[in-house]
Structure formats: C-alpha cells, structure tokens
Specification:
529 residues; Leucine-rich repeat, LRR (right-handed beta-alpha superhelix); 6% helix; 19-stranded parallel beta sheet; mainly beta; single chain; 6 helices; 2 domains
Amino acid sequence: MWDGLSQTNTLKVLSLRTIGTNDSSILQGICNLKNLHDLDLSWNEFNGFIPMCFSNLTYLRFLNLSYNHFSRNIPAALITPLVHLEYISLSGNIFGGSFSFGSLANHSRLQVFKVVSLNNDLQVDTEDLALPPPFQLKVLYLSGCSLNNRTQRIPSFLLHQKEIYVLDLSSNKLVVRFLTIWGSNFPSLRILNLSRNYFEGNIPQSLGNLTEIWSIDLSYNRLSGEVPEEIATGCSSLMNLVLSYNNLDGNFPSTFMNISNLYILYLDSNYFTGRISYALSPSVSVRYLDFSYNGFQGRIPSLIGNCSSLISLDMPANLLEGSLLDAICKLSQLEFLDLSKNQLIGHLPACSQLTSFKFLHLHHNMISGSILTMLSGSFNLRTLNLRNNKLSGGIPRFTDKLKKLRVLLLRGNELQGHIPLHLCQLQKQTIMDLSQNKFSGPLPSCFSNISFGRGQFDTDAFLTNGELVTKGDSMGYNKSNSLGIEEYMFDILLDSPVEEEVDFTTKSRAERYAGNILNFMSRLDLSCN
C-alpha cells in the first residue's frame, strides 16, 4: 500500500491522523512525495528520529507531527530548507537536545509554531534569531521546553509580533518582573498562558488594554500586590482568569463578576483579604469559582443565589462566618461545594432542588443541628463530608436513596442512636467514617454485604462534568486544503472538570487522595462510639 503511495508524485495533501500506526516505512514513503503541501501525522505511534529526508519536501506549508513518540533532537537541517511552512506543530513528543529559532531565519510565511514538551528534556533557544524576525506569528506555543535556559528571559522577538493571537510560554522557569509589554504589544491577543514560571512584581494595569482577550493564566508564579481593576473594565471578552498560587493580596475587585462572559475565576492560594461580599457579586455566566486558601472574611452574601450557572464553588480555608444561607439552594446547576475550614455556624438549609450535586465539603466548621433534608434531592451525590462539626441527631432516612454515594465522612460530630440499616443500601460506598460520635447498639450485620469499592472503578466518579467550549475564529490563518479544516480554530477547555479530593486519617496519619485514585481506596472507621 505505502509503496504505491510513494509513487503518487502529484499528491499535495496527506492526513494520517489518528490511524494508530508506528510503521516507519510510511515515513520513508512520504519522503518521495516532493509536491506535498500539507502533511498531518498527528496522534500516532511513530518513534525515533524525524526522517531527515523530510527536508526534501520543500513545498510543505502545513506540518503536524504532534502527539507521537518522536525523540532525540529536532534537526535544524530538516527545518531550515522548509521555507514555505506556515504551520509547524511538534507538540506532545519526547524530544531532547536543543532547537534554535535561528533555523527559522528564512521562514517569512510562518504563522503557527507549537512545541509543548512532555518530558522537559528539550531546550529551545530563541535569542540567536536576527531581529526583526521574518515572520509575524498568529500562534506560539513554547511550553515546558526550558526556554532560553541560559538567560531564563522571554523571547526578544516577541517585541516584533503585533498579530499574535495565542501565546503560551508556560512551564519554563522564566525569571523576569512582569512587563507592561503584555498589555501594550499584543492588541489582538486572545489567549495568554504564562503559568508555572518565576514572574515577579505587580500585574500591570496595561493588561486592561487586551480588549480581545479570552483567557489569562498567570498561575504558579511569584506575582504580588493587588489585581488591577482595569483588567475587569478593559477585558470585556474575558472568559477565563486563573491567578492561583501567587502572592497577590488586598481586596479583589467585584467588577470582575460583571464581565458578561466570565466562566472561570480562580484566585486560590494567595493572600486576598477583605469582605467576601465585596469580591462576590451576581453573575449569570460564571461557572467555576475558586477562592480557597485566602483571607476572605464575613458572611456569604445572599446574592450568591443569583449565580444561576455556577457548577463549582470552592472557598475552603478562609475566614467566612455566619450560617449557610438558603440562597445556596437556588444553585440548581451546582455540582461541587467546598466551604470547609471556615467559621460557619447554624443549621444546614433544607434544600431539595440540588439535583446536580456531586461533592459536598463542609467539614471543620461549627455547624449544628441535624442533617435533616438538605440533600434529599441530591441523588447524584458522590461525596458527603461533614466531619468535625457539631451536628446532632441520627443519620436521616433519605441517605438510602443516594445510590451513587462513594464517600461518607461524618467523623467528629455528636450524632447518636443506632447505626441505621439503610446505610447497607449504599452499595457503591468505598469510604465510610462514622468515628468519634455517640452511636450505640450493634453493628448492622448487613455491612458485610457492602463491597467497599471492589469492582466499582468509574473514570468519571470523582470529577465534575467538563464541557468543551469552542471559540472559533479564522485568526487570519486560512488553510485552503482538503483536510476538512477551512480555518484555524481554537478549543478552550473553559468548563474544565474539577477533580475531587478527600482526606482522612488512618492510624493517626492524615492522607489526601484525589481523582481516580479514590476508586482504589476503601475504609470503614467506627471507632470512638
């Protein structure tokens, strides 16, 4: 078959995407297709060197070798002759050695360059490229590739890129104070990912000039100071803002919640302070809020009930106080709620309409009263964690209807009475902790029928539902070919699934488990009753 293909000298477009092959004879046959314009070999099992004979394909405009097992170095002698290239994707391989942007000195047509390294063995150096560069990029991914390892600086040629739409320099250990060029130099920028570097200093107000931006990820850096309100007022198209794991402080402007298309707002693991009512305001678009591990204070505002699209609300380890409001019951789309490690008091609200609920964490508060019927309609519940509160009474009858419940943690309360027989109907139960309460009487013999995880593996059991939101735009890069792609499209995983985490104590040692590993965990603790 492939011998015949190599004789098809007039072939201009070839896509072998996702056919699952590692047949090296295919690669050698492709080398004879001298008139080839577009080549897509992505998502296969090809390994070893990229064949040097690819350098003979001098008419190539589109080259996609992503997500294979190509290794060793990216040969400059292969890339240099391919001066007609508009699109290069080498992501998701296991390259090593070094690659110099000097190989692209004559690539005046280049618009898309993508290298996302899986093993961090590749070193990319951009600083031997003469300035100004010959190309104007639309898309640049240089992630996890030890970028400019000697200087740890951002690429100098970016100062000359005025048409860029997507810029990803994540996971490179870049060391630099946050520069104003990010807001003033890229007027068309849609996606900016600078996460997992060593950026320092304040976030500049000039980011508010990115009027077309969809997504900003500055997480896992060393940024400090307050978040400029200019970003909220200027970036009116913003959908995704991730500022996690920095040293940001002060009040967070509530105007961010007024952005009409905001889907994700992650502020976790910073030093934000002030009233939570100042940071939160009603939003019909926001779906994922993470304010965890900060210093927000005060009562949860009743207006939270107007965030009608909210899927995940994550606010543990703050200084929140007051009672859990009935407004929570209005969040009919809510799947994940974590208000643990705060100072909440009062009774649990009676909610029967939380039918989407999967994960509830209210542990380490001072909530009192009975469990009552807060979750009587939450038939999709997987985790119920009410540990270390002041709950009293018994385990309500409705729990036998929670057929999907995997984790039940009621440790450290004042619950009493017999352990009810209806808990035996929770056949998907893997972890149950009823310790340090006031239960009495015999242990139900039917407990021996609970499998506690045996044969219960489910890849989606400990995730919220993720939804792929696609923003399509030509971005100025038109591929007039027969690969079925008329224009360059961007898929932004805005509704990324939240991974469930559960921590519990075994033999006086606290452990935390997350995601699918919970499928393999089992535990029953009835001690101290």
